[in-house]
């Protein structure tokens, strides 16, 4: 049975993460829905909303006296940090090549962060999210449910957490294109798990993979380029399926290596 000291607090963390983020992001979402420009307070809260997972993790971990653990480890195989950083770009470039071969060429091959808000998102979202999702929650869901099921659970909650960001500033309604982004989050959670395992568990890998998704952000493509998004989503799902097979094998090896109770 999993050690409750290592797996406890997940429900509280998931609930608090969503509650903090949604409460902070709500004023901006309401302004978009009314076709208004968000005020300074709403925008400040929207920036703070990215730190919902970190704040929730600190609160829950403090109850278990484990705050320090969520900011570790950093040592690992550093070449995997570089691999993680460019994994989203590699998947997306492959998707764009396949889409172009099918007659759906992308207007931009690499969607670099060219505006200040893009750079801010790259930094704030990585820091605000990853110490919660991967620093706190990932070790616990893996210990309790295994690498694949645990990652899918975490990815599902992570996708739902994004719900308040789906209101388009242009239409004031839910952006259907971003729903594809939400579908990609659970398989990406498996890729996180696989890269973390290969790289020795360093949180730098998680931060790099998250940064890579903003370094080449497919959500900045025009909405009409749906084919590129769908093909990239399929590639992510295929990569996650291969990663899941590897993770299951590693989990099986670890189970066999554990001493049997007498």
Would you mind describing this structure in some detail?
- Helix content is 71%, strand content 0%.
- The protein has 262 residues and is mainly alpha-helical.
- It has one domain.
- α2 (10-33) packs antiparallel against α3 (40-49).
- It is globular and about 60 Å long.
Comma- or semicolon-separated keywords:
single chain; 262 residues; mainly alpha; 0% strand
| Element pattern in H and E | HHHHHHHHHH
What structural class results from the helix and strand content?
Answer: mainly alpha
**Distance between the first and last residues' Cα:** 15 Å
The main β sheet shows up as: none
Identify the overall geometry.
globular
Count the beta strands: 0
Radius of gyration: 19 Å
In terms of topology, how is this protein built?
Blueprint: H1 4-7, H2 10-33, H3 40-49, H4 52-63, H5 79-101, H6 116-145, H7 147-161, H8 176-198, H9 203-215, H10 226-257
Helix pairs in contact: 2-3, 2-4, 4-6, 5-9, 5-10, 6-7, 6-9, 7-8, 8-10
Concise overview:
This protein has ten helices and no strands. The protein has helices spanning 4-7, 10-33, 40-49, 52-63, 79-101, 116-145, 147-161, 176-198, 203-215, 226-257.
């Amino acid at each position: 049975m999993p050690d409750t000291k290592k797996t406890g607090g997940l429900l509280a963390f998931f609930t608090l993460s969503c509650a903090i983020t949604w409460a902070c992001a709500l004023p901006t979402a309401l302004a978009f829905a009314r076709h208004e420009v968000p005020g300074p307070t709403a925008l400040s809260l929207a920036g703070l909303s990215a730190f919902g997972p970190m704040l929730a993790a600190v609160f829950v971990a403090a109850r278990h006296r484990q705050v320090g653990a969520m900011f570790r480890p950093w040592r690992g195989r550093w070449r995997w940090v570089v691999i993680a950083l460019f994994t989203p770009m590699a998947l997306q470039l492959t998707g764009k090549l396949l889409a172009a071969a099918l007659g759906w060429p992308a207007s931009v091959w690499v969607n670099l962060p060219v505006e200040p808000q893009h750079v801010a998102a790259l930094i704030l979202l990585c820091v605000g999210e990853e110490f919660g999702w991967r620093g706190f929650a990932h070790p616990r869901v893996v210990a309790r449910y295994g690498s694949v099921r645990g990652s899918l659970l975490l990815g599902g909650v992570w996708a739902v957490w994004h719900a308040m960001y789906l209101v388009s500033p242009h239409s004031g309604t839910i952006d259907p294109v971003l729903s594809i982004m939400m579908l990609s989050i659970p398989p990406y959670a498996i890729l996180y798990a696989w890269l973390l395992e290969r790289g020795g568990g360093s949180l730098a890998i998680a931060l790099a993979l998250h940064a890579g998704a903003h370094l080449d952000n497919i959500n900045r493509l025009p909405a009409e380029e749906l084919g590129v998004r769908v093909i990239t989503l399929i590639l992510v799902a295929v990569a996650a399926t291969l990663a899941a097979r590897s993770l299951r094998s590693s989990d099986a090896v670890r189970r066999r290596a554990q001493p049997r109770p007498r």
